Amino acid sequence: MPLSVKHDYPSAPDESLVRWAQSGDTEAFEQLVFRHRDKIFARAMMMMRNEDQALELSQEAWVKAWQRLAQFQGESSFATWMTRIVINLCLDQLRRQKRVRTESIDEMQEESGGVERQLPVADPNPTAGLEQDELRRRIDEALGKLTEAHRTVVVLHEFEGLEYKEIAKRVGISIGTVMSRLFYARRRLATLLQSLKRERSE
Amino acid sequence: MTLDLQAYVDGELPSDRRQAVEAMLSGDAEARELVEGLRRLSLLVRSHEPEIKVPASREFYWSQIQKQIDLVEREEIRRPAGFALGWLRWLVPAVGAAAVAVVVSLRPGPEEVTLAGAFDSAQTESSAVVFRSESDGVTIHWID
């Protein structure tokens, strides 16, 4: 009769949970889902800006992860590996929706290479005095006002920490386009955050 | 040059261009201001990543995932049977064709070489070789 071992899932490190899940332990996998579900959903939400799609894609990412678990060798953290899966699914979805394309005057300027130097930096700290939670909310709001093409490069660069080369490869654009999209996105974010400051003082 | 300034802030410039940007920054106040603005903004965004939570209970969220995993695994169990049937679809006509070829070869044709042994075909370009064994009543064709 096989000896069944009951693991202490909540206090086990990711590495152990992954190892147990790799041998077919769904309870260990459920613990990984529970531990990282908010981060994975948040990433999908930031990319898609649509709760239903983000929910669906984040769940699809977990199913894919279960299927590919044997391929995970621990070169990165489990959370990083999972985030890459959900981002790839979001990029595929955006491509299918053909939404990552010229969407605004900013992008048209950007594609024609009209990058200007100015960034609204008149106020050295446009968000001074805001509570941390409020600041997060405002930044999320500002990100929501960017075009999908611009938001994608900001998310991949600022939150995922990807280099220009890697972003270009994943999104399927040139490094030059990554750079100009990032610049326009930052300029727009700076403008949006400045207008928040004005709103507060009115 | 603006994008070079941004690449400088992001640590993406090769060393020769980085030195050129640093030289330029020392004499360009506007460029310095841009670099500082980009640096502040990047730091601000990175350190305030929006915190978004799954809008569903742990149980419901997991149950949806588990349902899909079960579905995928059932599909995978079913697939090998389908794969074998797919091979059968090809195997039956292939065996049939081979049987016809053997029957045709067993019948001696008037144009075939009737001496025992192997002979190169007269058309050397096609590298066809015919072997005929009178005693066994068998002809074998090699076409290269």
Structural description of this entry:
The complex is a heterodimer of chains A (202) and B (144). Chain A contains nine helices and no strands. With 202 residues, chain A is mostly helical. Chain A has two domains: 14-96, Rna Polymerase Sigma Factor, Chain: A (Orthogonal Bundle), CATH 1.10.1740; 105-201, Winged helix-like DNA-binding domain superfamily/Winged helix DNA-binding domain (Arc Repressor Mutant, subunit A). In chain A, helix 2 (26-48) crosses helix 7, helix 3 (51-68) packs across helix 4 (78-96) and helix 6 crosses helix 9 (175-201). The longest helix of chain A has 27 residues, at 175-201. The model of chain A has no long low-confidence stretch (mean pLDDT 86). By secondary structure, chain B is mostly helical. Chain B has three domains: 2-46, no CATH class; 55-107; 112-144, no CATH class. Helices cover 60% and strands 11% of the residues of chain B. Chain B is built from four helices and three strands; from the N terminus they run H-H-H-H-E-E-E. Chain B has helices at 2-9, 15-25, 29-46, 58-106, and strands at residues 117-120, 128-133, 138-143. In chain B, helix 1 packs across helix 3. Residues 109-126 of chain B have low confidence and may be disordered. The A-B interface holds A 26, 30, 33-34, 37-38, 41-42, 45-46, 51, 55, 58-60, 62-63, 66-67, 115-121, 124-125, 127, 132, 135-137, 139-140, 143, 154, 157-159, 163-164, 176, 179-180, 182-183, 186, 189-190, 193 and B 1-3, 5-7, 10, 12, 30-31, 33-34, 36-38, 40-42, 44-46, 48-56, 58, 61-62, 64-66, 68-69, 72.
